[in-house]
Structure formats: structure tokens, C-alpha cells
Amino acid sequence: MPGPFVSVVTPVYNDEPYIEECIKSVLAQSHQDFEYIICNNHSKDRSGEIAADYAARDPRIRVVSPPEFVPQAKNFNFALRQIDSRAKYCKMLLSDDWMYPQCLQQMVEVAESNPRIVLVSAYRLIGDRPDCFGVPVERSSFPGKEPCRWQLFGTAFPFGSQSTVMYNAESIRKRAPKFFPEDRFFMDVDIAFRLLADGDFGFVHQVLTYSRYQADTVTDTASHFNSWPLLHYLMVEQYGRDFLTPDEFRIRHDEVTSEMYRGLGEQWLKDKVRREKKKGFWEFQRKHLGDIGVEIRPDLLSKGILSAGLNLMGSLSSLRGKIRNEMTKAT
Fold first, then answer.
1. Distance from C-alpha of 158 to C-alpha of 166, rounded to nearest angstrom
2. Angle, in degrees to the nearest 10, between helices 187-196 and 145-153
3. What pLDDT sits at residue 221?
4. Long-range contacts for 288-296 (Cβ within 8 Å, ≥24 apart)?
5. Distance of alpha carbon 15 from the chain centroid
6. Which of 215, 243, 271 is the last residue of a domain?
7. Are residues 184 and 299 in the same domain?
8. 300-308 mean pLDDT
9. Exposure pattern of 134-169 as b/e (b: 16+ CB <10 Å)?
10. How confident is the model over 117-135, as a mean pLDDT?
11. Has residue 172 been placed in a domain?
12. What's the domain range around 271?
């Protein structure tokens, strides 16, 4: 008897080198009761042709496109609006990633174990590096507030990327036409917090997906802009009050604020040494802080500059000490 129907969705833009591997991993799933929607965002390479070729050979595959080229978040939302009304679950898979053959089956099994589960995740590989570890191994179902607290405290980061998780399809329909927020940094983490405010979390303790890290992508660009401290701050500022006690929020908010401004202070010092600003850095910070109505505070930036300077001096002193020790050993 076939299992619950799943809509698998792959948004694609100019991923000709990887899209075929992605498609093959979907077709190789042990859970075979699915449709596969490939949303071609007007690619300029052969991505759309490759998808169309597979669709001609397998009726489960549909290739769709928005009316015109749109930014990433809008393309994701357009793709999700195409899922079949029969779908109980929706599994996204980015076009440069792939799934192991048991991915759908094991995620569906966990989701079916608890009707309150709205989001299922699992371990993943990013290149050759394992990720999403830290989830308690003795359980596969959790109240939604638990993974949100792990994420806020930084003890575990279970949400991965869009390729890592599976959503309850009804949760997507309830938020149509915009499931993913189109004005948020790391929209996948943002939607996880929103879903888990009212639902439970499932986790498969197996590596089920592979994520490819590519240069010049949105994620790669963000990694050069103090993005991790910025994300921590944005998460706590937006959702800390919902999932932490007042004392926990105050302490954690102070920590992530100091961490973010220390990173901004370090960049400010680097800009002064180079006598020019790093291209795009401050625009990136202001844009994503502005998304939640926050501006860079000059008083906190001054503290961040001081903290970064003290760290730099400490690092130089430590380096000089190591050099002296090595020279003493050599003689």
C-alpha cells in the first residue's frame, strides 16, 4: 500500500552541472508515492532543458516557471504554490543538492509518528562536513519550543537548509501565497521559528541529504559579511522573547549583541587600515537589521571597536610570545 503522498520541490536557476544528479536522487527514493515539481526560474543555461527531458520520461515530474525571473525567495514561494492538493508533506531539495535513497521514507515515518509535527529535519553533509548534530539522540519527536531554544542558545542548529527539512504541506497552504518571508535573512530559519511556535518537531538521526557549498552563491557571499553573529542577533531579537524566559532573554540578548558588534568593530578597524570600506559589508548589515526595524547603534559600535581592538592586541601579544618560545627552544 502506498504511503502518504509527498510533493518534492526543486527551484532551479543556472545549475546545469548539478541538476541531473539532484533529479536522479529524487527518482531513486525508496518512498515512491510522490510528485516532483521542478521550478525553472528562467535559467540561462541548460537546466530547464535537462528538467524537461526528465519530465518527458517520468509523469511524476512537472516543470513550471514563474512568469518572469524573480528573486530567490519569490521563486521558492511560487514553486510551493504548485504542490498538489493530495500532498500531506512537502520536501524541498535545492538544485545543487541531493538526497540519500531513504530520505523521504524515514522523514515520513517520523512525521507520521506524531500528528502535531510540522517540520522534520535530519543530519546532513555540507561537502565532507557533517552538520545538524546536537539533537538528543534518544528521541525523534519534540515540542516545537525545544529546537527553537537550542537554536537560540547555540547548543544545536537542527534546521539546516531548505534541502535538509520536510514540511507538513498543510502548514504551507495556510501561509500561502508567501510561505517563506521574502524580506528576511536566512528565511529557512525564520520559517522554522514561525512553524514551531504552534507545532512539534521531528528529527531523523541519520544523514539524509548532501548540500554542496558553492562560491559566489547567496550563502557564500553572506559568509564574508559577519553573517553568523548577525543571524544569532536577528534570531534572538525576533524570537527570543517567545521561547526564552525574561532572564534568559536578557542574558542571551546581551551575548549576541556583543558578539555582533565585536564583528562590526573588527570590520571597522580593517576598513580604517585599508582606508576603504569592504564592498557591500555595511549595506548588508543595515539591510538585514532594517528588515526587523533595527539600526546600527553608534554607542554599541564604539564598544565593538574597542573590544575588537583589545582582542587584536591580545592576539598579537600571544603571537609574539609563541615566536619567542619557539626561538628559545631552537637555541
1. 12
2. 140
3. 61
4. 288/184, 288/185, 288/230, 288/234, 289/230, 289/234, 291/183, 291/184, 291/185, 292/234, 292/237, 292/238, 294/237, 296/264
5. 19
6. 215
7. no
8. 95
9. ebeeeebebebbbbbbbbbbbebbbbbbbbbbbbbb
10. 95
11. yes
12. 224-330
Q: What is the pLDDT of residue 118?
A: 98
**Do residues 111 and 200 both lie within one domain?**
yes
Say whether pLDDT at 326 is over 90: no
Strand ranges in the chain using DSSP code E only, listed in sequence order: 6-12, 34-40, 61-64, 89-92, 98-99, 117-126, 129-131, 141-143, 166-168, 200-211
Length of the chain: 331
Closest listed residue to residue 239, CA positions, set 283, 195, 284: 195
CB of 47 closer than 8 Å to CB of 15: yes
Residue 310 covered by a domain: yes
Given a contact cutoff of 8 angstroms between Cβ atoms, the answer to whether 16 and 40 are in contact is no
Residue 204 dihedral angles phi and psi, to the nearest 5°: -100, 120
Domain count, the chain: 2
Q: What is the CATH number of the domain that holds 21?
A: 3.90.550.10
Answer yes or no: do 11 and 143 share one domain. Answer: yes
- The pLDDT confidence band at residue 224, using thresholds 50, 70 and 90, is confident
Mean pLDDT of the chain: 92
